Each structure stands twice: as C-alpha cells, then as structure tokens.
Amino acid sequence: MKYGVVAFPSKKLQDLANSYRKRYDPHYSLITPHMTVKGVFEASDEEIETLSTQIGEVVKRHKPFSLQTSRVSSFSPVTNAIYFKVEPTPELLELHKDLHSDVLGAEAEYAFVPHITIAQKMASGEHDDIFGQLKMVGVDHEEIIDRLHLLYQLEDGSWTVYETFRLSGAGE
Fold first, then answer.
1. Residue 38: helix, strand or coil by DSSP?
2. Could you read off the pLDDT of 15-28 as tens digits, one per residue?
3. pTM confidence score
4. Is the link from the previous residue into 77 a cis peptide, with omega within 30 of 0?
5. What domain range is 98 assigned to?
6. Per the residue annotation, which of 34, 62, 96, 149 is the catalytic one?
7. Cβ neighbours of residue 25 closer than 8 Å, sequence gap 6 or more
8. 13 CB contacts (<8 Å, ≥6 apart)?
C-alpha cells in the first residue's frame, strides 16, 4: 500500500488553494490541499505498524512550526505544476531530514521544495497563462502547524488519514 506524511494547512488556506485546484488540478477530488513532508512510499500492513511508531517518535522530537506561504511559483519546465511556495524554515527542513533518516527509508527522491500544489498536468500554453495570472495575485499567509498526518492511498486513488501525530517537542 502507498503512504505519505503531510501537513494540512488551516481551512482558510485550504479554501484559497481549492479555489484554484477545482479548476486546475485533476487531483482535486483525491486529496485535501497539503504540504508533503515525506513523499510517497510503499509498506505492507506489518511494516506500516513499525513505521508509524517510528514516525511518531520522530515527530515527538519536533515543535510546531510556522508555515509561511510567500508567493506563487512553478516547477516548469520540469513539470507544469503551480504551487504556493512555503518558506523552508530551519524547523521544517530539520523535520523533513529526520523523516528521511535510515530507519524511515533513507533520502528523499527529490530535493525538498516545501509547497502546496494548486494546479498541475496542464498544457504548456495553459500553464503559462494561468501562472502569469496567479503570480500577479500572489499569496501571503502564515500559520502554525502543530500536527502531521500519515496518509494512505485507497484503491480509487484518493488519500485518507491513517494516523495523526502532534508536534510537541517533548522528546528533546
């Protein structure tokens, strides 16, 4: 089964992201707006129990962090995805690093670019037009994230919460 670890932003930021996603993101109905902290990985039912415990131990060592969206950006020309850029704070980078330790599945597949996707899988012309519009609108939002969620993918492609972990900093 496929799993991933994400942070869900506040309803206010989710509503803003969804105002674009419902038009420009074919994954709109499959998952709530989120910031991926540990990308998709596979695990058996037995393995996920152990991994879930280990993720819980890692998360306990970290305090809540600030999620700041500062602008609209794009992964073009690699992919035609548009996103709210999340500032990579030291706390967020350290949390990402710890979730990719040897015990939890080694290094991330891609460089960590914290973001919340708002549009993807568009033709190049559409991407350029939409990106130009959204860059002018921009986004300026800050909030505190105090929990992470281990998600799993259902057979229909949608994602749902397997377990929620509170960032407490208690394990320091």
1. strand
2. 999 999 999 999 99
3. 0.92
4. yes
5. 2-166
6. 34
7. 117, 118, 119, 120, 121
8. 33, 69, 84, 116, 141, 143
Overall number of domains in the chain: 1
Q: Could you tell me which residues come within 8 angstroms of residue 142 by beta carbon, excluding any fewer than 6 positions away?
A: 66, 67, 68, 69
Does residue 172 fall inside a structural domain?
A: no
Residue reference for tokens 């496929």: 2
Pair of tokens at residue 37: 């902290």
The one catalytic residue among 62, 96, 100, 115? 115
The domain that holds 162 is classified in CATH as 3.90.1140.10
Q: Is 99 inside a domain boundary?
A: yes
pLDDT for 103 beyond 90? no
For residue 171, the model assigns a pLDDT of 55
115 is catalytic: yes
Contact 153, 159 (CB under 8 A): yes
Q: Does residue 38 belong to any structural domain of this protein?
A: yes
pLDDT per residue over 37-59, tens digit each? 999 999 999 999 999 999 999 99
Residue 73 has pLDDT above 60, yes or no: yes
